[in-house]
Amino acid sequence: MPDGSTASPQQAMAHEVLATVFRVRDGRLWVLLWQRAMEPQAGAWSLPGGLLSPDEDLPTSVRRHLAEKVDVTDVAHLEQFAEFSDPLRVPATSAAQRTLASTFLGLVRTDVDPTLPGDTTWHPLDALPPMAFDHAVMVNRARARVAARLSYSNIGFALAPHEFPVSELRDIYVAVLGYPVDATNLLRILSRRSLITATGGTGRAGRGRPPALYRFTDSYLRISDEFATLRPPG
């Protein structure tokens, strides 16, 4: 017999994919943002992305949105890192709709400078504009992910140019980590883990001898020491 309870209507679910794309420039870490053209929150800065199509997997969808929305295709590393599922994270068009977000971390090398559309630009993380929905939280989570990965993997390959002096790589690490890193110690650590290799070439001379050039041994993510941590000096 019926127990007298009333079933609530099933809530409609939209699924979007969003990309937090970072690069290092002028000693700072920057994130790619585009300005929303439609409500809700039209005009607010947000992460590039869009709705997942029924015939797509998540990586295919986020790469499509990066190419179509902001004309960015040369991403050296892309990984899914978090789901955001607060029922109220995006104002619903009706009381029975919510939006789930799958978020990706993307990295662009310093020697790559994609041409962006007029509604898209790079913003430094230390001076972010007001952002739509929960996108600022996503940016902070993604920054923490890439900073952690710098300690225990070779993920710097996706931020650095193909060849670099150690001083340039040190500046990239400092921009992401937010604290000083000693170039000599960095070279020792990465060389001991076989993450970087001397090319045999030299860079442009400044004061003194031209600096030796290095490259990352691999151009794909490799975990070298899962318990390693690069700590601030102290």
Index terms:
single chain, 234 residues, alpha+beta, two-stranded antiparallel ribbon, 4 helices, 27% strand
Q: How do the helices and strands line up, and which of them pair or pack?
A:
Layout: E1 12-25, E2 28-35, E3 45-46, E4 49-51, H1 58-70, E5 77-84, E6 97-107, E7 120-124, H2 135-152, H3 166-177, H4 183-192, E8 196-202, E9 212-216
Parallel strand pairs: 1-6
Antiparallel strand pairs: 1-2, 1-4, 2-3, 2-7, 5-6, 8-9
Helix pairs in contact: 3-4
How does this structure look, described?
23% of the residues lie in helices and 27% in strands. The protein is built from 4 helices and 9 strands, in the order E-E-E-E-H-E-E-E-H-H-H-E-E. The strands form 2 sheets. Strands 1, 2, 3, 4, 5, 6 and 7 form a 7-stranded mixed beta sheet that branches. It has a two-stranded antiparallel ribbon with strand order 8-9. Helix 3 crosses helix 4. The longest helix has 18 residues, at 135-152.
Describe the structure concisely.
With 234 residues, the protein is an alpha+beta fold. The chain has helices spanning 58-70, 135-152, 166-177, 183-192; strands spanning 12-25, 28-35, 45-46, 49-51, 77-84, 97-107, 120-124, 196-202, 212-216.
